[in-house]
Amino acid sequence: MKHMLSSEPILVFLVPLRSAWSAKSWVTVCNLLERTLRSICNQTLPSFHVLIVCHDRPILSDQYNNTEYVEVDYPAPKQPISVSDGDLDKARKLWTGIQYAQKFANPYLMFMDADDCVSKNIVEFIAQQPQSNGWYISKGYQYREGSWLIQYRK
Q1: Residue 69: which domain range?
Q2: What's the pTM value of the predicted model, to 2 decimals?
């Protein structure tokens, strides 16, 4: 069995955050991350942890429970950022987060971009299925900040 409810997280959310240096607008990056953190931290069960892997600590208007910053010290991609440089930076941050998450007792990992939102029931859903090896989310909604349109994606 993977987990029973305990002080160890059932689920660790890994969020790679682009650097202030590579962002067109650091304020926008921080605002989107804050929306993501509100989404994650609204879970019906508190058995989760958030790892934000970053070059620069974001400027946030609130403190978020179960959230930790893992700062990296390798060079950040510079503007204009190419797709391959951005993908490499994200992959390195995810790898760093995976390595860091090993300090927990076998949690499930969920990769999230800093502009994603998640159901408040996901940790509870996972807690109810401790024998599962993992899940694949095959549908959801796509929304661009500031748009009036929300698109259902299969």
Answers
A1: 11-153
A2: 0.89
